[in-house]
Amino acid sequence: MVIDGQGGGLGRQLVAAIRERRPEMEILAVGTNSAATNAMLRAGADHAATGENAVVVGSRRADVIMGPIGIVIADAMLGEITPQMAVAVGESPAKRILIPIDQCNSIVAGVTERSMARAVQSAVDALCTVET
Predict the structure, then answer these.
(1) How many domains does the chain have?
(2) What is the pLDDT of residues 49-69, one digit of tens each?
(3) In the β-sheet with 95-99, what is the strand arrangement from edge to edge?
(4) Residue 54 located in a structural domain
């Protein structure tokens, strides 16, 4: 499952990169808003849903959850991540692959600054090593 909000740019890049490297993988795109959901659908997601309940239900069912680090921080992404969303992702039994984006007023110490494209590539590399 790929989660993103705002314009869905990161989610779009993730879905496209996953589709390229692992075309057989089933991808559920969950947007915090319809623009993010549509961007991920256009990038090749198999299924899509929008909103808080979609994050909650999807988090229970996913094998792997990918997205910006803000998906585990209540009120992140300009308030698009509700406390319920952050808890659902955090409590999920899924493996989480989080991209350290410092736009959520959270800085992950020790993480070197890299381009978004490089961060997406690193996340997809991590996904390819996860056993589901």
Answers:
(1) 1
(2) 999 999 999 999 999 999 999
(3) 47-50, 28-31, 2-4, 64-68, 95-99
(4) yes
Q: Is 50 left (phi over 0), alpha (psi -120 to 50) or beta?
A: beta
Residue 132 lies in a domain: no
How far apart CA 32 and CA 111 sit, in angstroms, is 26
pTM of the model: 0.92
3-state secondary structure of 2: strand
Q: Which alpha helices (H) appear in the chain, and where do they start and end?
A: 9-21, 34-42, 52-61, 83-91, 116-129
Render pLDDT for 72-128 as a digit per residue (tens, 0 to 9): 999 999 999 999 999 999 999 999 999 988 666 677 777 777 788 888 999 999 998
**Which candidate, 94, 71, 92, 95, places its Cα nearest to that of 83?**
71
